[in-house]
Amino acid sequence: MQGGYNIHPLIDALDDAKLAPIAAKALSHTLLMFDNFYDVEEKAKAGNEYAKQVMQSWADANGS
Asked: Which residues are in the Aconitase B HEAT-like domain (predicted)?
């Protein structure tokens, strides 16, 4: 996925226990986050495990 209008709902879904695994997988494959990166980073710093997984995936370049 490149990014776009789907980004904010996916980031919001990281806080939903049922949707978080799906959202994390989708975000891990997303290339164009722009400033939305900081939203995921904020969730990761707040302890959201799925946001941490997304950040690690980006750091490892696993999403491509």
From this structure: 1-62
Smallest CA-to-CA distance from 51 within 34, 32, 35, 26 is with 26
Composition of the chain by helix, strand, coil, percent to 5: 60, 0, 40
Q: What's the distance, CA 54 to chain centroid?
A: 5
- Per-residue pLDDT tens over the stretch 4-56: 778 999 999 999 999 999 999 999 988 778 889 999 999 999 999 999 999 99
- Cβ pair 14, 41 in contact under 8 A: no
